[in-house]
Amino acid sequence: MTIAARAIKFGDDINTDYIISGKHKFKSNDMVAMAVHAMEDVDPHYYEKAKPEGAFLVAGSNFGMGSSREQAPLVLIHSNTKAVLAKSFARIFYRNAINTGLPVVECDTDLIDDGDELTLDLEGGVLVDVTKGITIPFPPLPPVMAQLLADGGLVEHFKKHGGFALD
Amino acid sequence: MGPIPGKTIAEKIFSAHSGTDAHAGDIVVADVDFVMGQDGTSPLAIKALERMGVTQVFDPKKVAVVMDHSSPSPIEGVSALHTQMREFGKRTGVKVYDVGCGVCHQLIPENGHVVPGDLMVGCDSHTCTYGALNVFSTGVGSTDGAAAMAAGKLWFKVPETMKVTYTGELAPGVFSKDLVLFLAGQIGADGATYKALEIGGPVIDALSVDARMTISNMAIEVGAKAGLMKADAKTLEWFEGRGERVPAPVEGDADASYCCELVYDAGAVGPQVAKPHSVDNVSPIEEVAGTPIAQGYLGTCTNGRLEDFAVAAGILKGRKVHSDVRFIIAPASKQILLDAIAAGYIQTLVEAGAVLVTPGCGPCVGTHNGVPSDGENVISTANRNFKGRMGNGNAFIYLGSPATVAASVIEGAITDPRKYFGEGR
């Protein structure tokens, strides 16, 4: 499946407090309501930009550093973020994204500018910056993570196999 | 056949818990000894268990949920989440630490839920704290936590290990917090991403268990998966009387393979301060001394232990908090609160002008207990100073040791605490 959307670009070290602040995430379990606050401390207009037509969140290195809050990938999903593209990811966020079904792609995001039109075929391994007319290579997901994402996340994996069934 | 190469602490713990000959880079499914969630993460884990169709946890004695981040509840939304946690406890038999018990990262080891040699996961990034107790403990998200609660297992990539050695001796007025802030300044917020740290050397040997936990607590601030230390006589003594489980200490082999080794002379490290808005934006205190502050905070899973209260009370005894400063204190657990009362530290601090709040996370994560105002500077003993962390994106958070915070609340400005120690005392 190929997803098309525009890039909304950020810098390095975007932490999970920026993705969803503690003052919002402790209030409820309602991710739809919480999603309007996604990224607000670094871009107060992120939700209104991403929500109508979807967006690729493009960042530098160490995206998702900080806390273990799974609300971070969840509010991105609910703000219509199609995938996160970054030079590198922090460990817990990366696992949480896969577990909740948010695609994450490690690639050279210096090639992408804010507002660029992108297409991503995750299974086929093809990322294209349509605005610039370039294909950006990225490595495949580690097999365990590819398996979890293919099952639809960790909950679905558990339902399907009755526990861990990782090769 | 050549000699069998040695293993790191991480490789040994993952081998023992997965029944494999685990080496860095391997993917293993390993048994976990304990699973924990807090009030920001447990509700999502409970929901994930429901979606999985799981009604019981693998072993109720090996699971706990803790209300610490927003506790007692400041708003009805949180009250509803706390109710879900209490009901989950009743339904499954897992231990519930209700409001006022303290911070999860103090309660889990304090109550003997983990012992040296264990593998545990917690739905909170600072779960790495118990690395100081020779436990491979690491933070995971709620769905991973739910899977571990259901199966008693989780998949892991066995991490490479970075060895960090502190040589020499700490100068008076310099503490373990300064050592870990210094490390963050040196290697950066992603300096150890995906890696385990093994932290040791004579300086670590000389530290108390409380002080060691401060360092392991902040392993995540350099991206690490764990901040491991060996268990010595002090560690084992610390566990005495805390439960029936028998410690099984694990040491790294002398010929274990490390991805890199860092050696720092602790004697050359003075008080350190992390400046807004990142933990690796670290300066020696001389560079920020004199910065005015409106609020000070002593507490958190980093520095809310008895020793931290002793240091702050030692400095504030007979002195006053500056009239322009709010000084908030939160012991990391009820037990620490009781011990600090018995030792007279709470009396001293409150007489000096401190405001005591409930054992727990306090104002660290911006939910309650002291949200700073626009433009204000805060000096805090916490582990994070991200923009908006304490609930206001227009405030500025500086991080330092309990001594630095105590010295600063007296002056109303960031202050080098060394004048209260050693010869200048």
Overview of the structural elements:
- The complex is a heterodimer of chains A (167) and B (425).
- Chain A is built from eight helices and seven strands.
- With 167 residues, chain A is of the alpha/beta class.
- Chain A has a single domain (2-161), classed as Aconitase, domain 4, CATH 3.20.19.
- In chain A, strand 6 (126-129) and strand 7 (134-136) form a beta hairpin.
- In chain A, helix 6 (91-100) runs parallel beside helix 7.
- The radius of gyration of chain A is 15 Å and the shape is globular.
- The model of chain A has no long low-confidence stretch (mean pLDDT 94).
- Chain B has 425 residues and is an alpha/beta fold.
- Chain B has three domains: 11-157, Aconitase, domain 3 (2-Layer Sandwich); 161-232 and 258-267, Aconitase, Domain 2, CATH 3.40.1060.10; 272-424, Aconitase, domain 3 (2-Layer Sandwich), CATH 3.30.499.10.
- In chain B, 31% of the residues lie in helices and 19% in strands.
- In chain B, the strands form five sheets. Chain B has a five-stranded parallel beta sheet with strand order 4-3-2-5-6, with helices on both faces. Chain B has a five-stranded parallel beta sheet with strand order 16-15-14-17-18. A four-stranded parallel beta sheet of chain B has the order 10-9-8-11.
- Chain B is globular and about 60 Å long.
- The mean pLDDT of chain B is 97.
